[in-house]
Amino acid sequence: MSIGLYELIVNAIEHGNLAVTFEEKSDALQENRCRELIVEIQDQGRSFDLNGLPDMKTSEAIMSDHGRGILLANLFYDKVEFVFPGNCVKITKYFESQE
User: Fold this and answer.
1) For residue 42, how far is the Cα from the chain centroid?
2) Which ranges constitute the DSSP H helices of 1-85?
């Protein structure tokens, strides 16, 4: 069930909020350039207190039921920036040149 829910949410973000067309995504997948499609994610929520983020270096944060997504994002991306008021996150990943 969680995989299905995840796929529906990703679909809503990619095709709904970001307006990435089926053709754009297909071309990006075929040309291995998906990383160019999504660099900023913003929701319509009321945000959260950026100062209230837990210290991600503690064992409590790793084992917590909440905030683990932020911890994982920091592991997978080189830079994770939350934009005030907290309903927008910018992620950066540096790739080595394929040439």
Assistant:
1) 10
2) 2-11, 22-30, 59-63, 68-76
| Interval 3-47: pLDDT, tens | 888 888 888 888 887 788 889 888 888 888 776 667 677 778 887
Burial level of 5, CB count in 10 A (0-12/13-18/19+)? exposed
**pLDDT (tens digit, 9 = 90+) per residue, 53-99?**
777 777 777 777 776 778 788 888 888 888 878 788 888 888 765 55
CB 93 within 8 A of CB 35: yes
* Residue 42: both structure tokens together: 């913003």
Residue type, 31: E
- What are the structural domain ranges in the chain? 1-36, 39-99
Helix/strand number for the chain, H first, E second: 4, 3
